[in-house]
Amino acid sequence: MTTHRLLAAAALLPDGWARDVLLEIGVDGTLTGVTPDAAVLPAARHAAPAKGPVLPGMPNLHSHAFQRAMAGLTERAGQGGAAAEDSFWSWRQVMYGFVERLTPPLVEAIAGQLYVEMLKAGFTAVAEFHYLHHDPDGAPYADPAEMSERVLEAARHAGIGITHLPVLYAQGGFGAQPPRPGQRRFLHSLDRYARLLERLAARHRADPQFRLGIAPHSLRAVTPELLRDAIAALDALDPASPIHIHIAEQTLEVEDCMAWSGQRPVEWLMANQPVDPRWCLVHATHMTELETRNLARSGAVAGLCPTTEANLGDGFFPAGPYLSAGGAIGIGSDSHISVSPVEELRWLEYGQRLLQRRRNRLAGASGSVGADLYRAALAGGATALGRPIGRLAQGARADLLVLDGEHPALCGKSGDTLIDALVFAGNSNPVRDVMVGGRWVVEEGHHHAEEAMLARFRGAMATLAA
Ligand code: NGQ
Ligand code: ZN
Predict the structure, then answer these.
(1) pTM
(2) pLDDT tens digits, 383-420
(3) Which CATH class is domain 58-385?
(4) Helix boundaries (H) for 299-393
(5) Overall CATH class of domain 2-56+391-451
(6) Residue 64: CB within 6 Å of ligand 1?
(7) SS3 269
(8) Rama region for 284: left / alpha / beta (φ>0; ψ in -120 to 50; rest)
(9) Percent of the chain beyond pLDDT 70?
(10) 406 vs 155: CA distance, rounded Å
(11) pLDDT of residue 83
(12) CA neighbor of 119 nearest in space, from 385, 418, 389, 448
């Protein structure tokens, strides 16, 4: 059954830009019809006009929601030790200190604000790589899924789709090193982890805004046996659901993996797991040419988070060779020092320009860099989130953005040039309206719960500052 109809003068469909597109949306939030050149059809007569060009909403394939509250607090030299040694690893130490102070209500308030910001920026679904499970002593809460439920409640309240990825974390480093004190809140035995998955699946499986997957945190954090067993536990619930893992983000991780196994992280994973489109390899920054080619051919999604990767000093993902070999990519805002699909795509391209001292490095089939990257991130993001999103087509979720076509960055532009302008021109947000699962969550730039969410977030930040 169709509940409402939207008529878009211009919309980006899987085959390209189309005019006068009638979008019909069913009660369950999926698109029941997508018809171009529909202006004269009777069904279009009662359709509400979209107030600008329509794009599919962008999936955000990597988020640690609580880190939104740390953004801007880790930019002082020497916070995690000697200033000259400031690195990813000293940042991680600062982050662990911050984690100690988070409670379930604080996490819900932070995630709620973050998800509102994501929606306003044009992210309509998120993969939440969730590792803050337990109380500060490392003991499970009365409901072991308490923290997961808080994050899911924030997503529900904000109206964003969510692929929830409870993290499996079991060791402090390669070769079964004991966990560090700062990691206590993350840890699970296989048994408890499997029960957490079962509980979350039972409670939320019927929700079309939800998908469950798993996130073995990294090869540093799990043994090969645990990785295998966790995947088996997930398969018992749903053998197609997504698996995300941090990999090869830092050169030290590559060296430690070599010392442990004689192989590099991506090489090890490809040799020991059937890496396919079900997998999302987050960062995959440090790969040889062979690893790059093999990963591209596997169909797995490379989860790229360019603003966080820059902020943490990771290095450059080999985007040129990877995309040339047909590799799938998606984008994530990860640590949320920026919450913007535009900025992630822009810096993905700019990294390559700065490295190679050339322009227009990552164009694909159309030749439009911004448009090709946007399309690639829609497709890869949808695969990584394991949900029918990222495209305006019958059967997909009605997750879409209406842009302000009269915004100074966009006026007078159409088609792929419009997306190029969205990605590369300006810093003010031209996203006007946002629909998720058939429901308007942002209208005229305002999210329906933004005031309540912001008030709670301010309260949380005041508590954390005290
Ligand atoms: C995380 N973040 O889990 O939050 C990680 C850092 C780690 C990024 N890798 C911690 N960006 O990898 O051990
Ligand atoms: Zn991460």
Answers:
(1) 0.98
(2) 999 999 999 999 999 999 999 999 999 999 999 999 99
(3) alpha beta
(4) 306-311, 319-324, 341-356, 369-385
(5) mainly beta
(6) yes
(7) helix
(8) left
(9) 99
(10) 31
(11) 82
(12) 448
Instruction: Convert the pLDDT of each residue in 53-97 to its tens digit.
Output: 999 999 999 999 999 999 999 999 999 788 888 999 999 999 999
Q: Which ligand is nearest to the CA of 131?
A: 1
> Does 68 contact ligand 1 (Cβ within 6 A)?
no
Given a contact cutoff of 8 angstroms between Cβ atoms, the answer to whether 18 and 426 are in contact is no
Domain positions in the chain: 2-56+391-451, 58-385
Q: Determine whether the shortest distance from the Cβ of 92 to ligand 1 is under 6 A.
A: yes
Token digits of residue 155? 């997503």
Ligand 1 nearest atom to the CA of residue 67, by list position = 4
> Distance between CA 322 and CA 337 in Å, rounded?
26
Using alpha carbons, list the distances in angstroms from residue 82 to 53, 76, 90, 248: 50, 11, 9, 25
300: helix, coil or strand? coil
Residue type, 300: A
Query: Token digits for 327?
Result: 């590799």
**Which residues form the catalytic set?**
283, 334
Cβ–ligand 1 distance for 308 under 6 Å, the answer: yes
> Which amino acid does the sequence have at 82?
A
Q: How far apart are the C-alpha atoms of 146 and 222, rounded to whole Å? A: 23
Q: Name the residue of 62, 249, 338 to mutate for ligand 1: max ligand atoms within 8 A of Cβ.
A: 249
Which ligand does the CA of 221 lie closest to? 1
CA dihedral (247, 252, 254, 259) in degrees, to 10, reads -130
Is 249 near ligand 1, meaning CB less than 6 Å away?
yes
Secondary structure of residue 457 in the 3-state scheme: helix
> Does the Cβ of 407 fall within 6 Å of ligand 1?
no
- Where residue 128 falls among pLDDT bands split at 50, 70, 90? very high
Give the ligand whose atoms come closest to the C-alpha of residue 63.
2
Give distance in angstroms: CA of 344 to centre of ligand 1.
Answer: 18
129 CA to middle of ligand 2, Å?
Answer: 7
* HSE-up (13 A, CA, CB side) for residue 104: 16
